[in-house]
Design goal:
Structural class: alpha+beta
Number of helices: 9
Strand order of the largest sheet: 2-3-1-4-5
Strand content: 5-15%
Radius of gyration: 21 Å
Number of strands: 5
Oligomer: single chain
Order of helices and strands: HHHHEHEEEEHHHH
Largest sheet: 5 strands, mixed
Helix content: 40-55%
Length: 234
């Protein structure tokens, strides 16, 4: 069986977290990816069966969001931000460098999918870290202030089986491990949780404006409670 009893139990636990079972679809798709490394047709059928949905309903969601991969991913997913600011500061050059080194294009895998050292490369539209541009992510963990040279060294380390520490955030795991976390499953032991999942998420650059405002005593104007205009009843 592709999805064993443990996966079924996790799926049922996800369903129990929501008042409406279909609300568990997004984390359940991540659960599927934590098992297969992508969302296959079998994975879509599994979600549909667990949630009482049609395969068409599940497919509509799985094909809408870019985090759900329809082709097998590598051991690691490398996402290079090529949106405007990152691109202007070197994101395009980073993507080109990595693509040439790996010999792949967008959402293609260098190596056997899922095998140690294999990597899927992708463009990312925005990673919400413009103050640290150019940035990339490995399995959704941040590597800030990158250059083509530093990004290439990072990818070579991943291919060697190493797991360089992210700039911030949790210690690096593989793609399937990250997907299990995105599904909402974490170590119950606090010490294990802190060592495997917990990590600093703030950066000095991100907090600079807030600290400057605090140092100078700046505050935002108090928002007045303005009543909403009346609208005609339908």
């Amino acid at each position: 069986m592709i999805f064993d009893a443990d996966t079924v139990a996790k799926a049922q636990e996800l369903i129990g977290r929501y008042p409406q079972s279909r609300s568990a679809l997004l984390p359940m798709l991540h659960l599927v990816q934590s098992v297969q490394g992508h969302v296959s047709q079998e994975g879509i059928a599994f979600c549909a069966e667990q949630l009482g949905l049609t395969e068409a309903e599940v497919s509509a969601v799985a094909t809408f969001y870019t985090m759900y991969k329809r082709r097998p991913c590598g051991e690691h997913l490398v996402s290079v931000c090529t949106n405007t600011l990152c691109a202007a500061l070197g994101g395009d050059a980073i993507y080109k460098q990595l693509g040439e080194h790996l010999g792949v294009g967008h959402e293609e895998v260098a190596g056997e999918p899922g095998a140690p050292g294999s990597i899927m490369l992708e463009h990312a539209e925005c990673l919400a870290a413009c103050d640290l541009a150019p940035v990339l992510q490995v399995n959704y963990e941040y590597y800030d202030n990158q250059t083509p040279e530093s990004a290439l060294e990072l990818v070579k380390a991943l291919q060697r089986g190493e797991r360089p520490a992210p700039t911030r955030g949790a210690p690096l795991t593989d793609f399937k491990g990250a997907e299990l976390q995105l599904a909402g499953f974490f170590p119950e032991d606090e010490e294990t949780y802190r060592s495997e999942v917990d990590g600093p998420s703030q950066a000095v650059e991100t907090l600079r404006g807030a600290r400057l405002a605090a140092d100078r005593g700046w505050t935002a104007p108090v928002m007045e409670d303005v009543p909403l205009p009346e609208v005609e009843a339908k």
